[in-house]
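Feature request, filed as a ticket because there's no other form

It would be nice if the structure record came with a short human-readable summary line next to the tokens. Right now we just get the raw output. Example of a typical job, pasted below so the devs can see what we mean:
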Amino acid sequence: MNATDTPTSLQPVWREVLAASYRALENSVAGVQDGQGDDATPCSEWTVTQVIQHAAGDQLAYAKMLGIGNGPAYDPFSPSGAVDGTAAELVKDAVEQTAAAWAAVSDDTETVPTPLPHGDLPTPVAAVMCALDAAVHAWDIAIATGQPSPLDDELAGHLLAVARGIVEPLRQWGAYAPVVEAEAADSPSSTPVVDDLLRYLGRTPR
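Raw output as currently delivered:
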């Protein structure tokens, strides 16, 4: 898929994909216990709190591009690790702003602006990339803090369909690590599509 192509399966479901990804992010953040904010994450250079800040900042950046809010007050790629208020409040505000921004996008809007280097993208593609950011960081946070994976194969399938056409140029900026190849000794997974998505995004599934 090219960045300008839209998988036909996404047109009727992109709003549901966004909602599911937002639930995953909020639930993962809600499950972080006191004292876990400084724990290491699959994002090797960032702690749990830094990943939360990054995820919230990315959502606020999408919201600003869609005409809601002023964007993050900090650089999402240089998160401080210190949150004013609570992490849950930070994420809730970010998700509410971005959800409101997407709700204002009509179903017949062909393209929308994004904070990605790609610029404007077809609406379902842009929405699912926004969802991908929330969902994969929900997974990072959950795994770092001993929670179950918030992803399932249905959601991962939609995310992967878009990621394959968009992610490659982003690796050069460090947004995603190189693909992690499956090992021959890997045991069968109950969520193979989730594993494929995580490996494609530079993460080791288990």
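Something like this underneath would help us a lot:
The beta strands are 111-112, 121-122.
The mean pLDDT is 91.
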